Amino acid sequence: MKIVGIVGSGRKGGNTEILVKAALDEIQKEGVDTELIILAGKDIKPCDACKSCWKTGECHIEDDLPPILKKMLDADGIILASPVYFGSATPQIKALIDRSGYSTRAKGRPFENKVGGPIVVARRAGQNFTFAQLMFFFMITGMIVPGSTYWNIAFGREKGEVSEDKEGIQTVRNFGKKLAWLVKKIAE
User: Fold this and answer.
1) What is the CATH number of the domain that holds 46?
2) Domain range spanning residue 56?
3) Are 137 and 127 a contacting pair, CB within 8 Å?
4) Which of the ends of the chain has fewer CB neighbours closer than 10 A, N or C?
């Protein structure tokens, strides 16, 4: 059993990464393997709407997405995380969502019945829209999204500031525990 946490922030070591690590720490404590995937510094190009992947199941764009997509497909669970950028998810995570969703259509529904969910960090606003953007991936692909004690959202702007949002950190930790519990239940 394995859950991957994908950090869609453009900066390494920031608030989004802190939140995903908090969730992954709880998952590891429950005996489930984890992997942190950071999109910062990776080349994830947007979908060009050619639709060739609908026939072949493979995207023709050459960039850093294929090994990440393989890890997503091999995992039992997926966390997608993004800071709010200009009121929505980052271009990197949105490109990953679009291309991984479209390119797997020819392969059936390979994400169906995996578990996962979104994590969002905001400075001030935009968190609900960004949360919904990420949630759409899980819903469209037929994944199972467990709840927590609130939405998986925390607040912070400067690096590390999110750690001061105790409720946000605890919510993300509870989400990690619930993900691990659900992955284990499905495996029974």
Assistant:
1) 3.40.50.360
2) 2-187
3) no
4) C
